[in-house]
Amino acid sequence: MNEEYDVIVLGTGLTECILSGIMSVNGKKVLHMDRNPYYGGESASITPLDDLYKRFKIPGAPPASMGRGRDWNVDLIPKFLMANGLMGLFEKRRFRKFLVYVANFDEKDPRTFEGIDPKKTAMREVYKKFDLGQDVIDFTGHALALYRTDDYLDQPCCETINRIKLYSESLARYGKSPYLYPLYGLGELPQGFARLSAIYGGTYMLNKPIEEIIVQNGKVIGVKSEGEVARCKQLICDPSYVKDRVEKVGQVIRVICILSHPIKSTNDANSCQIIIPQNQVNRKSDIYVCMISSAHNVAAQGKYIAIVSTTVETKEPEKEIRPALELLEPIEQKFVSISDLLVPKDLGTESQIFISRTYDATTHFETTCDDIKDIYKRMTGSEFDFEEMKRKKNDIYGED
Question: Hey, which end of the chain has fewer CB within 10 Å, N or C?
Fold first, then answer.
């Protein structure tokens, strides 16, 4: 291990694994280590079910009615991936007109603007132009555009329109949902990027205790593990490895719920995402519900896993998620966790230590993708070029 690397990565959460893969593809010499013997970090998939009971200190073993323990792969932090029913709730003419406008919108073609200046007109004014009611605005902003607050309403509308356009195009791709979810849980994703890194020369070491991050003159120079030092020019890590360099900005409550039935009023869907907009429950933050099932090879036959999450706003966080839990009744078993939201204290450009953010309450990867792109830009000084990454990947795997 006494070698010099361009980049050392600590932690195998999805953010760290994706960045490891990207850096390897870009020709960097990468060493990736984790103190744990498994991939995933905070976002790991837990199997068998007995391990989930132990992790949350639930007494006894899972009941026989829950099937074989090995049939379960429970994600601690589930998130859907945007793929690239259309809803039947709002079929009024004005909303359809709005969706047609979004579908035709092209920020490079002024002929599609219809009197709206995408760089100046606030989104609030766009909604007003199409005479959309508050319920529709809440749904559009939080469930389609995936905003967590209403601050976007007074910002230029271009980004919001493009977010809604992404949702619509992703929905059109497969017909029933704009989201993807990997079979056997999200634990497969970090391993996939680990394999990509390895193909390009990256080195992985699990179950490696991290004794010290070595800094000289304010800049990282290496990592010490089991008495050996690996030198590096840059370091990527999750907050748990550098507790003195991060700060707490809030908390998230997550409740994993095991069900024997689909969620009511979802047409017996075997997976779904429900977003309860903040305005609907007199809160500052949305409440998220992610539901998956045996169809995704994450639960025993006939069983469903629903995870409720939100940003904590009071001293009684379990009361805050009651509106979501009521949608899931009856619930066979609950596993409750409250975790801190941690963010880096600085950009890392001086120390060359680049720290990811802990996962927020959302049930989609949009904010995680933003964090990955932000870290990449701070490390390299340039924007992440997905098309270039795709071209390099195709050199190895062939065209999709």
Answer: C
